[in-house]
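[step 3/7] inverse_fold.run input=structure_tokens len=86
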């Protein structure tokens, strides 16, 4: 699973990285084995996802959140929903 945090590196974007990492760890996922976290910081790359506000989160290329820092509960739901698809 590839988790992408979309943002230019602002404090909210950094918090989103922390939240997504914590949610994945809470679910027992191992970085590098079960998931890969990628920071997408270049504006042109962010625009390809079609979001207008950062921070954003995409899982396996599909945007699941934009314009706010997700809560741990929301982040956990994003990940478990993706896991249920597979």
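[step 3/7] decode complete -> sequence:
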């Amino acid at each position: 699973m590839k988790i992408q945090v979309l943002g230019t590196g602002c404090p909210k974007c950094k918090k989103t990285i922390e939240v997504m990492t914590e949610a994945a760890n809470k679910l027992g996922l191992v970085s590098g084995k079960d998931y890969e976290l990628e920071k997408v910081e270049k504006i042109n790359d962010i625009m390809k996802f079609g979001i207008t506000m950062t921070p954003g989160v995409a899982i396996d290329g599909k945007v699941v959140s934009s314009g706010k820092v997700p809560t741990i509960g929301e982040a956990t739901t994003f990940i478990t929903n993706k896991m249920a698809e597979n």
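[step 4/7] annotate
The helical segments are 11-26, 43-47, 72-85.
The chain has one domain: 2-85.
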